Amino acid sequence: MAEEFVYDPERNYDEATLAQLRDMEKEIADRQNLISNRIAFDKLSEEYAKEDEIYRTKIQGDLKNRYDYVRKTRGDGNCFFRAFGFAYLEKLLTDQTDLKRFKDVAQNSKSELVKLGFPEFTIEDFHETFMEVVGKVENQCSLDELLETFNNQGLSDYIVVYLRLLVSGFLQKEADFYSCFIEGDRSMKEFCNQEVEPMGKESDHIHIIALTNVLGVPVRVEYMDRGDSLRCNQHVFPEDSTPLVTLLYRPGHYDILYT
Amino acid sequence: MAEYKQLTLNPPEGIIAGPVNEENFFEWEALIMGPEGTCFEGGVFPARLTFPPDYPLGPPKMKFTCDLFHPNIYPDGRVCISILHAPGDDPMGYETSAERWSPVQSVEKILLSVVSMLAEPNDESAANVDAAKMWRDERDKFEEMAVKHVRKSLGL
Predict the structure, then answer these.
(1) In chain numbering, where does the site feature Interacts with free ubiquitin fall (chain A) (predicted)?
(2) How many domains does chain A divide into?
(3) CB pair distance less than 8 Å for A121 and B2
(4) CB pairs < 8 Å spanning A and B
(5) A48 and A171 in one domain?
(6) Is A21's Cβ below 8 Å from some Cβ in B?
(7) N or C: which end of chain B has fewer CB within 10 A?
(8) Which residues contact B86 (CB under 8 A, 6 or more apart)?
(9) Judging by DSSP bridges, how do beta strands A245-250 and A35-40 pair with one another?
(10) Same domain, A168 and A89
(11) Domain with B108 in it: what CATH number?
(12) CA-based R_g, chain B, Å
């Protein structure tokens, strides 16, 4: 039997709820790195088997035939951005073909955001950190160093914030077109203030479309749901492009896939 | 740091804010002038801002250190407005259009929101229910209270 709830006006329930949320976040943080090492599929399906037969079938019968490894990301609401950022920079470490183009886009993106009305002093720290990490990749840092950067909460979160700002900037710039895709009766600016810019807000299709567009980095997503199909459905953003990064989506979460 | 510079170089009208001391940038003091044309006009209200270690990813907390009787200020001085909360962290069920905390908000934006909160209380999401009731039903009495606190804030 739960104790009967008695409202205590002296107590701050708001803060008690937040403290509980923080405890839950900490528990997840202790269990899962922001970005894990590469894990072979066999090990992964063992993990899933305990909880879910359908996932196990899809991994064994489909994903395993097409991919070799997965990197897991922490489920903190930022996983799409963190997975995308890490996977793409990791790709640039071994293949620098796209690096110069990407660096220019990233470098110029700050003035684009300022033009859209973001106060410069609120975005420059995020931009600077982002460019420093791009610089590391340009100077061919080791994979371990990149992994360490993405597992450093401070640095990693600043990268996520900057990617969020890029999405917000793109959607606000293209608001005429994209406003028909947002839920609820709100302006694009309100949507971005509430669903894109704050940390921990989960990503939807519209976030993915915006990020792949603004950076010019196509991505493939394998959708693994609990549906009857034996295979995962895949979708490439934007359609008909050659993806540089592949992510695995399970409802509510993104990890990274490797061939 | 950049924010402090920004606020010092371009101070918005009626607001002064800065770190309590040079060693600790996570505690700020602010002075807010009561907005003109409202019952808080003429008051100078001191407040404290406390920043979390992950600022600006998370919002600071703000607390008035003087007496203020207002629907959106808890009796102990804590300010309760939507911009001090990230979406999802929703103690008052703010309207969906309300401005929320995000890493590109700033102290300046918060303080400006606080000034408009003083001018236009939001009695839909009240932190001080008595103040909200009085503001709604007995405006004269509410204004009298405000003037009392204005005088007190000036040491009169």
Answers:
(1) 209, 223, 225, 249, 254
(2) 2
(3) yes
(4) 63
(5) no
(6) yes
(7) C
(8) A198, A199, A200, B58, B59, B100, B101, B102
(9) unpaired
(10) yes
(11) 3.10.110.10
(12) 15
In the chain, the amino acid numbered A207 is: H
Cβ-Cβ contacts under 8 Å for A85 (sequence gap 6 or more):
A150, A159, A160, A163
Q: Tens of pLDDT along A95-112?
A: 999 999 999 999 999 999
The residue-averaged pLDDT of B140-148 equals 93
CB-nearest to B86 from A122, A124, A198 is: A198
Confidence of residue A1 (pLDDT cuts 50, 70, 90): very low
Active-site choice (B15, B17, B80, B146)? B80
Two tokens, residue A205: 């299709």
Q: Where do the H-state alpha helices sit in chain A?
A: 13-31, 41-51, 53-58, 64-66, 79-94, 99-115, 120-138, 143-151, 153-173, 175-178, 188-191, 205-215
pLDDT band at B96, cuts 50/70/90? low
How far is CA A191 from each of CA A113, B79, B143, rounded to the nearest angstrom?
17, 24, 36
Contact with chain B for residue A233, Cβ under 8 A: no
pLDDT value, residue A34: 94
| In a shared domain, residues A182 and A241 | no
Distance separating alpha carbons of residues B41 and A51, to the nearest angstrom: 62
CATH assignment at residue A185: 1.20.1300.20
Domain that holds residue A176: 76-217
- B3 in A contact zone (CB under 8 Å): yes
Q: Provide the domain count of chain B.
A: 1
Using CB atoms, which residue from B3, B58, B91 is nearest to A121? B3
Half-sphere CA count of A216, side-chain side, radius 13 A: 10
Just list the catalytic residues of A.
76, 79, 253
Q: For residue range B44-70, list pLDDT tens digits in order.
A: 999 999 999 999 999 999 999 999 999
In this structure, which amino acid lies at residue A6? V
Residue A168: what pLDDT? Answer: 96
Binary contact (B102, A184; C-beta < 8 A): no
Count Cβ atoms within 10 A of the Cβ of residue A145 and give its class: 0-12 exposed, 13-18 middle, 19 or more buried. middle
Question: Does any CB of chain B come closer than 8 Å to the CB of residue A20?
Answer: no
Cβ atoms within 10 Å, residue A110? 22
Instruction: Please check whether residue A198 touches B, CB under 8 A.
Output: yes
Tokens linked to A243? 């993806």
- Here the tokens at position B6 are 């920004």
Closest residue, chain B, to A198 (C-alpha):
B102
